[in-house]
Design goal:
Layout lengths: L11 H14 L9 H12 L1 H4 L2 H20 L1 H6 L2 H19 L5 H12 L2
């Protein structure tokens, strides 16, 4: 795939490689995505804001953030497991807590979708 930058003479990968090289020459230290970045991506891919009632969704986000903070305090977990699995666990716990708080919430539907996204 090519971009309109450089009159389609460079691929997206070539442009990205050049950008990384420039940043490294300038002394920037590039890091990968954080646990919160992974959580954001999973939440967007699950489309929970479209499916859940707004009040339930807000509670769900609070549960996720609380669980994420607890995980981030335990550095050994961050070092031992990859972020996608940690995020899946954080979201799973939030689903289960939400199911306990809201009798009409069925976590099973969401858990299947989460497993599908993680293990694709």
């Amino acid at each position: 795939m090519t971009t309109k930058i450089a009159h389609s003479k460079l691929t997206d990968k070539q442009i990205l490689d050049q950008e990384i090289e420039i940043l490294e020459k300038l002394g920037f230290e590039l890091i990968g995505p954080t646990l919160l970045n992974f959580l954001e991506i999973l939440i967007i891919k699950l489309r929970l804001n479209e499916i859940m009632d707004d009040k339930i969704y807000q509670v769900f986000i609070k549960l996720i953030m609380y669980n994420a903070m607890m995980v981030m305090y335990e550095y050994s977990m961050l070092a031992k497991y990859n972020y996608s699995l940690l995020c899946a666990a954080i979201i799973l716990v939030a689903f289960k807590l939400l199911q306990k708080l809201q009798n009409n919430f069925n976590a099973g539907i969401f858990v299947k979708k989460l497993i599908f996204l993680i293990f694709i």
